[in-house]
Predict the 3D structure of the following.
Amino acid sequence: MTNYKPQFYPGTTTPSKNRRKYMDPSYKLQKLRTISDDDLVRIMGHRVPGEAYKSTHPPLEETGEPACPIREMVTPTPGAKAGDRIRYIQLTDSVYIAPVAPYVRAWMYHNRWRGTDVGVLSGRVPLEMRERDLEKVAKELVETEIFDPARTGIRGATVHGHALRLDENGMMFDAQRRYIFNKKTKEVDYVKDQVGVPLDKPIPLGKPIAEDELRKRTSEFHASFEPFRKDQELIEWVQRIHMLRTMAGNDPESIKGV
Amino acid sequence: MGKYKDRVDLFDDRGRQIEKNVPVEALSPLHNPAIQEIINHVKQTVAVNLEGIQNALATGSVGGKWCSLRGRSVKADVVANADTIAKALIETIQIRPNDDTAIKVLKGGKQLQVTVPLKRLQAGVEYTTAVTAVAAALCHVLINKFKIDLWDADLVHAAVWGRYPQTMDMLGGNVVSLLAVPQQNEGMGYALRNILAAHVAMITKKNSMNAAALSSIFEQAAMWELGDAIGNFERFHLLGLAYQGLNANNIVYELVKANAKEGTLGDVVTSTVARAIEDGVITPLEKKKSGYTVYTTKDMNKWNAYAAAGLMAGTMITCGSARAMQHTPSVFIYFNDLVERETGLPGVDFGRVAGTGVEMAFFSHSIYGGGNPGVFNGNHIVTRHSKGFCIPCVAAAVALDAGTCIYTPEKLSGVVGDVLSEVPILREPLKYVNEAAAKIKGDF
């Protein structure tokens, strides 16, 4: 079982290649910016920096666990062990060549981290995890190449804007104006937390990634850049799955060596 | 001779081999005596909450929430007299002395586990005989035992039967079956699908391997009853039951073991595909320009069973590492997304598990109400579409939860889970079903 090397994703175009890269946990995501632990906690807004983690149940060591071979084998995450609450971070990705397409987030999260509960909606991707596990993952989500301060938004509520045109500074629309483009520093400052509660002081998240750089890093298809229809191999794969789902659903015994 | 050539090795919940080279048909609900006994138990056995009856009589609170008959009260020491009530009840229910009627007094008289004789069910066509016979008999016994007069007999009826017949089911009643009333089934043959995942987790005392097995037995046995597991689809469900629910060839256990310490859902996908290649279930079809290899299979049913076993292992790794049940729908969607992208072959139940995951995600994450995975079953409007392959994973996930939900499995299941966990064949189905299969392996 150990010799098989996963291939992750078909396709020949840049977005497909980047999808493969981001979905591959052995690829280390490139760090582009630094955000302090406390600032990240402020933006997520679940607890005050320095405050102890609240719990939803006592630590597993105290409660003990039912006799279950799976529980005995499967190591709980640090947050589960401690009985942390389950909290979330929610991200919105602009359709204008943001680094990550919403669906890629789900595939990437499940390939890279344990105990992730992720769902994909039209304009947002919530990730729910035990609180301390979430904070660790969130740091990687915000500090690395899969986040662009201008085209990726940390939005717990009022998420829409992913399909609207970018503004004059290249920023994705946000009805709550959680972040602004600081013309002096040329950086994006978060002035509200993810649900729109004003922060005591702005938190800079760095400069927007340059357009040509984004084109190299993006895993999104776009008509103005690399359209989906250009990736013949991927189209063939989609058509194949559609055909096999339908034909096998009709009669699984009829599919042989296709 | 059996219909199918497939043979599997049988293992228990801890990966220990029970038997080698068993025809997979020995695990079919049509043949396996232990599965048939489980189904009979579900039909024959009900839970009685004597403490609930005593409180209802004392306070006049009958028929569910917010229903209280002020001024109505009957003092009856039901719990203290549990043994004599049980004796009278057995005499009322049994058809002949020493037949298969059985009553167990549990928790110091607070609960009864009552099994009605099979002949009572055979004398009718519905499976409701167990609840109706026990509830009616109990009313007679209580009225006689506590000498309750004509004017209070109605309160006894309400304390036992709940609000029925004003409601369709026995709302607020104190005789509970694992099966809902037939009117609450979404379609023909859905009775065994209408069992909460929380009940299954509690009956198996939160052993996730047994929770998966019991739930898979209920779900897949229902496929024979509702007309799905027949013709070209019988083997599809048979292999699904064996590999996903009953740990055939130890695949589920080994996939979990391989990823137990640090594995992610994606790692389970990789391990599943590797195992399928190793066992010759899938083979490379062609290499694409990017280097991507498309896989094919000569046995789509077997591939589905392997993917279903992987889905179970993926649930156990994801929900097990988080000790939380809410991740189940996310596993349904993305395990299948990933496995399809990894191989170029369709996911579990050919897309239906992924689709079910999308709906279940909405209805289990407070967006449109719903509830935690413990309230889901195969009869639920958003989880009925994958037939047999989703709910066993939900039951396993509920069993692995360490207490993240407001409505815990204990709260949701109540007396039923408690009482039925006293039946060994329901509590440890993997052991009994595998042993029964080993005994009949020569029949095929």
Q: What stands out?
A: Chain B has two domains: 7-31+192-443, 44-177.
